[in-house]
Amino acid sequence: MTQALPKRDEAFRAGETALLLVDMQRIWLEPGADPSHPERGPDHYFYRQTSSRTIPNQERLLAAARANGVEVLHTIIQSLTEDGRDRSLDHKLTPIHVAPSLPEGLPVASLAPVGDEIMLPKTSSGIFNSTNADYLLKNLGIRYLVVVGVLTDQCVDMAVRDGADRGYLVTCVSDACATITQERHDIALKAFGGYCWVADTDTVVDRFNALGKPA
Fold first, then answer.
1. Which residue, 1, 42, 106, 191, shows the most beta carbons closer than 10 Å to its own?
2. 116 CB burial (10 A radius; 0-12, 13-18, 19+)
3. All domains in the chain, ordered by first residue
4. Distance (Å, rounded) from C-alpha 152 to C-alpha 46?
5. pTM reported for the whole predicted model
6. Rounded to whole angstroms, how far apart are CA atoms 105 and 33?
7. Ramachandran region of residue 213, left (φ > 0), alpha (ψ -120 to 50) or beta?
8. How confident is the model at residue 215 (pLDDT cuts 50, 70, 90)?
9. Mind listing the pLDDT tens digit for each residue in 156-174?
10. Which alpha helices (H) appear in the chain, and where do they start and end?
């Protein structure tokens, strides 16, 4: 017997919806904090975009999620060991290493976890590849996964595609993500748009708020 398939943009359901913030860490978002790119000053496109649009939009999404019972999860790039020996081969070759003791490895203050919100350290581009995110989301009863973060064409891309492959109805909030250039951002959204519903912050905030209204 065939079952009717859901739509990617079907209404979220209370108790089945999660917001995932990807790599919103000080090391990537504060000018001068990323040792891999000392040439990027405060006027670089990425910092201007994240400070003026990406972070404020995520703050709105977080507030709406927390007010309406949406599960909030955070993932950050962080090694389990101080010397990074547990990292993936790719992160060793790049090299990417954020030690657990590094203060800049934490999320920016306005987006930091509160209460018992889950934060998962990862040492790969994809959260599903180096954490137990799938196990946790299934235990939490999550069906609708809303993804925001940086970089649009790297770790956000992986979260969207891998989440879709694992059976979640994924939403990517386009104006709550960013990457190094606008062109890269736009190309990424077009490339992985077939795996998710691409929406804007206003739309998703309205969806979250609808979850808190009496049926």
1. 106
2. exposed
3. 17-210 (3.40.50.850)
4. 11
5. 0.97
6. 10
7. beta
8. low
9. 999 999 999 999 999 999 9
10. 26-29, 45-49, 55-67, 89-93, 127-130, 133-139, 157-165, 182-192, 201-211
